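Researcher: Go.
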Amino acid sequence: MTALLIGTALAVASLCYVLYPLYRTGVSTVPRASTARKNRQSGAVEALRELEFDRQTGKISDSDYEPLKARYTEQALVAMRAGDAPVCERCGPRHEAEADFCSKCGAALVR
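Model: Structure:
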């Protein structure tokens, strides 16, 4: 009986420890702008690295490699030039900070 009570107490304590971050107040879950920019840049660079690795290992042909490399390079350049501004894949960086769609072409903006 004592072992059952101790086991239950440990299980409840572990559950409280795991769920505590979900119920804390005052903690922002939105990433900072500089972190979002770094993630965009590192994501584009990582895509280029993976593409190069796939080409070297023979998973992708040279005819498929060239257009993908050009597209990923363009995305990386746009992300680096954009800074904190939202980016339209067609028109480039946009100045509408709170917009969800490009005012020029209507495409969804990438943050």
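Model: The chain has a mean pLDDT of 79.
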